[in-house]
Amino acid sequence: MRTRMDLRRDLFTLQRTALEAVDPYAAVRRHLVREGNSLRFSGQRWPATESWGARDPRVTLISVGKAAVPMAAAAAEVLGAWMLSGIVVTKYGHRAGYQLPSRLNIVEAGHPVPDAEGLRAGREVVAHLQGACEDDVGHGCDLVMVLLSGGASALLPAPAPGLELEHLQQTTDLLLRAGATIVEMNVVRKHLSQLKGGRLARLASPVPVATLVLSDVVGDPLDVIASGPTSPDPTTYRDALEILERYALEDRVPSEVRAHLVTGLAGELEETPKPDDPLFDRVLNTLVGSNRIAAEAVVAKAGELGYHCLLLSTFIEGEAREIAKVAVACARSIRADSHPLAPPACLVWGGETTVTVRGEGKGGRNQELALAAALGLEGMDNLALLALATDGTDGPTDAAGAVVDGTSIRRARDLGWDPRAVLRDNDAYSLLEDTEDLLLTGPTGTNVNDILVLLVA
After folding, report:
1. 375: which residues sit within 8 A by CB, 6+ positions away?
2. What is the distance of C-alpha 73 from the center of its chain?
3. Edge to edge, what strands does the sheet with 32-35 contain?
């Protein structure tokens, strides 16, 4: 029989496996190949790159997200002298580990709430694209290559005319605290931006755009990931307003935001480009990494470790506390009647939960999920649960999540904590840090949502 410490050790092994499976540098190198004077994307030639003939093409690179640096490093190695210039925008603390060419301007910016550095980067991208990718000697580029990973929506704000950064900050914060999903948040963001919702591709046109995407959105919808700057947008100003109304935020967001959306609804502002827009004939979007890839790697490794394994879903969404109840129910079912698997069992979920913030504490969705699950698992022997944010930063914290077991709540109480009061105050970080259940990986360089793993011996 595996002990508590055996289970925790196995969970740390599975955590490393998940992250290695979605390494962004390796993902770009697998999917982007230089062949003569053309490029292959996921093994396929793209006609837009076949027209270059014998001359060396000129490529502008725009890499944005928590994995922006390793993705840019991989693309720069493939492109070599073809790379004209570019910009790399990533979250604070996610820059280290790779050497990038001096032609790339690297900016660190705020996430999940956009900040002034992100605004500067957004303005630089807009100005560059409006100049038709011309460099200082007037040569245009042949291709705009965009690399997108989790966090790109917040990291590259480019407010629509009439809006300011503070308007985006306030709106983002309100949506986060209301528990809006990433899909809902990005519908609103698209309609407040000069770059999101296909508008980056519109600015680049007629220059072709090739985008490599590391997905951080459940189901990998290209129009939602990073708010779809190079993808057709099926949503409208009306959809954005309805989301604000759904969360009773229509009178709480800045008046300028509401006025902008109402003006758009009236047809006085240009909509985001839709799927039938011919500009997308010269746009290629390629998925290079996802939550499913990470989850399947965990299942394979757990099998090697001797567990009976099952990947339940990579579409997990909803309140973190509610998903915790599902994990607890599965643990009890395995223990009671070996369903859906007999011990030693490993259940894996992927996706991204949300937290409706009502307290004043410190935490993130995976920490909240772990603490809520620990309450349900209290006193149960020989089981453990991992809740992992694959980017290494769960919510506005330096933790990646937590590893809890049947002893976590007892240990917390022995240290003087009231776990239920902590949960009410959304203060999971403080308790989990004290019990040494907090998971600290540092920035991982990747981001494909969250992984939840339950082990029952």
Report:
1. 409, 419, 420, 423
2. 19
3. 32-35, 38-41, 44-45
Is the dihedral angle over the CA atoms 388, 391, 392, 393 positive or is it negative? negative
Q: Which residue has the higher pLDDT, 39 or 198?
A: 198
Fold designation for 24-158+193-235+272-289: Rossmann fold (3.40.50)
Distance CA 329, CA 103 (A): 53
Q: How would residue 132 be classed by pLDDT, with cut points 50, 70 and 90?
A: low
Give CA separation, 416 vs 47, 177, 362, 399, in Å.
65, 28, 18, 22
Residue 271 has phi, psi (to 5 degrees) of -75, 165
Sheet containing strand 59-64, edge to edge, reads 104-109, 83-91, 59-64, 143-148, 209-214, 283-289
Tokens for 229? 């700057």
Longest Cα–Cα distance in the chain: 73
Q: Is the separation of the CB atoms in 64 and 300 below 8 Å?
A: no
Average pLDDT over residues 61-67: 95
**Alpha-helical regions (H) of 266-340:** 291-304, 320-337
Rounded Cα gap, residues 323 and 312, in angstroms: 13
Q: How far is 60 from 396, CA to CA, in rounded Å?
A: 32
Could you give the CA distance from residue 16 to residue 451 in angstroms, rounded to a whole number?
Answer: 11
Residue 37 is predicted with a pLDDT of 83
The model's pLDDT over 133-148, given as tens digits with 9 standing for 90+, comes to 554 434 578 999 999 9
What are 349's strand-pairing partners? 313, 452
pLDDT in tens, 151-162: 899 999 999 999
Write down the residue that tokens 């603390």 correspond to: 93
- Looking up tokens 């939960």 gives 353
In single-letter form, the type of residue at position 117 comes to E
> Using alpha carbons only, what angle is made at residue 129 by residues 215 and 169, rounded to the nearest 5 degrees?
60
pLDDT of residue 133: 54
User: CA 31 to CA 77: how far, in whole Å?
Assistant: 13
Structure tokens at 151: 């966090």
List the chain domain ranges.
4-16+292-456, 24-158+193-235+272-289
- Give the three-state DSSP class for 272: coil
What's the whole-number mean pLDDT along residues 166-182? Answer: 92
Domain 4-16+292-456 superfamily per CATH = MOFRL domain (3.40.1480.10)
- Of 174, 213, 155, nearest in space to 31 by CA: 213
Given a contact cutoff of 8 angstroms between Cβ atoms, the answer to whether 266 and 258 are in contact is no
Among candidate residues 73, 120, 126, the one with its CA nearest the CA of residue 95? 73
Rg (CA), the chain: 23
Predicted pLDDT of residue 137: 38
pTM: 0.82
